[in-house]
Amino acid sequence: MYLKLSYGTTEYTTEFITSNSSYKLEEIYYNDLAHADNSCSVKIPFNVDIQNFINAYSDNSILAQIKNTDGTNIFTGYVRKNYDFSKAQKNQALSLELVSPSFLLDVDTTKDVTLENTSLDSVVNALLTDAKFSTATLTSLSSYTISIFTLDEGSNVKTTLDNLLQQYGFTFDFDKDGNFYV
């Protein structure tokens, strides 16, 4: 397994040994019928380049992917900004917590949204677009028609998605490649 960190065009990759102490993936699909965030904790061997990279871009969203040796994704998320690089007699392993991309949806809408006679998947994709997130193919939602959907500018996208999808018996999550799905 290896960890790939990237921001913009800059990337760093490091291998790590898989053991109970170096890698822990926690997948939670929902909590009390609402969306819950997946996370992954990883310890990687000390690497000054990676530590400097994380420090340099710590105010931004650093993409993190845990991959199998064949290049397939196990988890895609972002470095949570609660890391601590401990110093001791010798360099300690870097401990990072990675979180699902859902925090990118925790933004307010930039304009009023009004949609008439549209499908639930169109409403969800309109919200994803407003949050500057990739749209998704949501065929399971296309059979639900909404007569009118209105949302005021400044409404929280993540909260709105949670509430809207819950009304129809759905919740959302992100797959191992970081793609939105219901």
Q: Major beta sheet, specifics? A: 7 strands, antiparallel
Integer average pLDDT? 86
Order of helices and strands: EEEEEEHEEEEHEHEE
Beta-strand residue fraction: 25-35%
Rg result:
19 Å
Helix fraction, binned, reads 10-25%
| Straight-line distance between termini | 28 Å
Structural class, judged by helices and strands? Answer: alpha+beta
How many strand units?
13
Sheet with the most strands: spatial strand order: 2-1-7-8-9-6-3
Label the overall shape: elongated
> Can you tell me the residue ranges where pLDDT is under 50 for at least 5 consecutive residues?
none
H/I helix tally: 3
Key features of this structure:
182 residues; 13 strands; 3 helices; elongated
Topology (elements, then pairings):
Blueprint: E1 2-7, E2 10-15, E3 23-26, E4 30-31, E5 34-35, E6 39-44, H1 48-56, E7 63-67, E8 73-79, E9 94-99, E10 113-119, H2 120-130, E11 145-151, H3 157-167, E12 173-174, E13 180-181
Antiparallel strand pairs: 1-2, 1-7, 3-6, 4-5, 6-9, 7-8, 8-9, 10-11, 12-13
Question: Can you describe this structure?
Answer:
The chain has 182 residues and is an alpha+beta fold. The protein is 17% helix and 34% strand. The chain has three helices and 13 strands. The strands form four sheets. A seven-stranded antiparallel β-sheet has the order 2-1-7-8-9-6-3, with helices on one face. Strand 1 (2-7) and strand 2 form a beta hairpin. It starts with a strand and ends with a strand.
Concise synopsis of the structure shown:
The protein has helices at residues 48-56, 120-130, 157-167; strands at 2-7, 10-15, 23-26, 30-31, 34-35, 39-44, 63-67, 73-79, 94-99, 113-119, 145-151, 173-174, 180-181.
